[in-house]
Specification:
By secondary structure, the chain is mainly α. The protein has one domain. Helices cover 78% and strands 0% of the residues. The protein has nine helices and no strands. Helix 1 packs antiparallel against helix 6. The N and C termini lie far apart (39 Å). The relative contact order is 0.19. The mean pLDDT is 75.
Amino acid sequence: MRRETVVAALLFVLGFSTVFVAFGASASAIGNLVRLHADALGKIAGVVIIVMGLHFLGVTRIGWLMRQKRLDVVKPVGLWGAYVMGLAFAFGWTPCIGPILAAILAVAASETTVARGAGLLAVYSLGLGIPFMLAAFAVEPFAAFIARFRRHLDKVEKIMGGLLVLTGIAFLTGFIGDASYWLLETFPVLGKIG
């Protein structure tokens, strides 16, 4: 039973990873087309990221980000159904993770290659997938942890909102580009990654 749970969790993670990596590749491909307007788009991305951060902080609540769609499945759909549910989860959960996803997609759009944009979203999917895999390995202790941690979710949301606002300001002021150049000059080996 535990093996089947782990395999189902892995297929579920692969399902939503498929969607998010495709988002990243698409953002990079589109980003290559609009590279001429990078400064203006960086400022727009900064504003959008700040608005998303303010949403997390509770300063501005964006209605469509608060909605969610649920898919009720009447009977088990098997292991491959877990993959399909992961695909559906990605599309259904996108409004919930919209602020973070929008920030990452803005960064992916600024990447020079489609592979780099897809790579960013692959890492994002890995980060989202780790809790699901941990939960599959330890269902009972994880459920108890989540029940205890739930009271801290508001604080986590506020911290994420603050970080998003800082990221948006960094985009608006051009600090992201300056920091990238500084990192590459200081640590040239970073230019060889990816």
